[in-house]
Amino acid sequence: MAQPNTAWDDHPEPLALASAPVPEYGSGSLADLLPTLAAGLGVPDMSATITELTPADRNCVFLIDGLGWEQLRAHPDDAPFMTSLLATSRGGTGRPLTAGYPATTATSLASVGTGLPPGAHGLPGYTVRNPDTGELMNQLRWQPWTPPGPWQPYPTVFQLAHAAGVHAAQVSSPTFENTPLTKVALSGGTFLGRLSGEDRMDLAAKQLAAGDRSLVYTYFAEVDGAGHRFGVDSDAWRGQLMYADRLVQRLAEQLPPGSALYVTADHGMIDVPFDEQHRIDFDEDWELSAGVALLGGEGRARHVYAVPGAANDVLTCWREVLGEQFWVASRDEAIAAGWFGPRIDERVYGRIGDVVAAARDDVLLIASEREPKESAMVGNHGSMTPAEQLVPLLEVRS
Fold it and tell me: CA 89 to CA 53: how far, in whole Å?
């Protein structure tokens, strides 16, 4: 539990907001990937903003949930095939992409599928306030249920590609076929559900070959799941990485002519120790909870919604208590700094916290009572540090 601060002058200045490494929206973020590929396929109104990529007639994006750039580079023996492709990342520059803020699954998948940054697509966190109801909305589990269309009204790149005559398909777990998140982020063309990773790879290759121009997406979740439960230093995590590596190779070996396979991820991950120094409990901290109506986001990327009239006091307090370890910004400061992209749609503005806190150090702001499952996770993500923010864009061409 954080101790009361008796005097501001007793503590160093809080982290400067300008020191936060803002994602490369518009040139090298996940939101730029599908528009770049679609532009190469001749889809109208799409721009090739990742200029390092060369167009291909058939494009497949394989997203491995939770496989950050730094974690991949740290485990060459567990992922020999993907390691051999590191030099191909981002069009042969050997550089990663940035996920976008926050670096979390719902936000990143929406960025991938819509080709828009979070401030436009409107999924700017794990949980955010719904301005219409005043409730926290979990955008991964879509609870409480909210009409998907008004929440995210833009067409996906798959829908635009399909309308332009491109063969578009998603090959994933059948579990995801009818979820609201899939509807708002990844729908368009044909959804094909397969349970096993091998079946997904085989079917993705067939879908690539099904059109003269193709845009195919496939997905593997278990690296992320093992990281949350056991940590990225665990045997369980390394085992899932080994399996994912074999899946990538299996797909790469089946690519039809004129294809480009891109292997990427939605975020990286870090392990956070289980002690009071690294895990600050909001539910037991009277200072941090004072004036707070709702706590959103997740442990490393918080949205803080103040009671009416208390926003400035909450911002001051959070900077005093957390400002040496978190970048702590007001809503307008975070928007002006570009954390959520170059523009914020009006419908999205109130979903962002009155205060936004992004972890720089290896710390979590947990909520043990209101978020018991999330607070017990070993591996975590969400913020703008390289371990969380940087993702690969490995390339295989045929």
Answer: 10
- Residue 145 CB-density burial (10 A; 0-12 exposed, 13-18 middle, 19+ buried): exposed
Query: Residues 329, 337: contact at Cβ < 8 Å?
Result: yes
Cα–Cα distance list, 45 to 38, 115, 157, 185 (Å): 9, 12, 10, 18
Q: pLDDT for 325-364, tens place per residue? A: 999 999 999 999 999 999 999 999 999 999 999 999 999 9
Which residues, 6+ apart, have CB-to-CB distance to 141 below 8 Å?
none
129 backbone dihedrals φ, ψ, rounded to 5° = -75, 135
If DSSP states are collapsed to H, E and C, what string results for 80-120?
A: HHHHHCHHHHHHHCCCCEECCCCCCHHHHHHHHHHCCCHHH
Phi and psi angles of residue 19, each rounded to the nearest 5 degrees, phi first = -85, -5
Closest CA to 269 of 70, 126, 14, 35: 70
* Among 276, 351, 318, 279, residue whose Cα is nearest residue 110: 351
Question: Minimal CA–CA distance to 115: which of 228, 208, 238, 31?
Answer: 31
Q: Which residue, 105, 98, 119, is CA-closest to 50?
A: 98
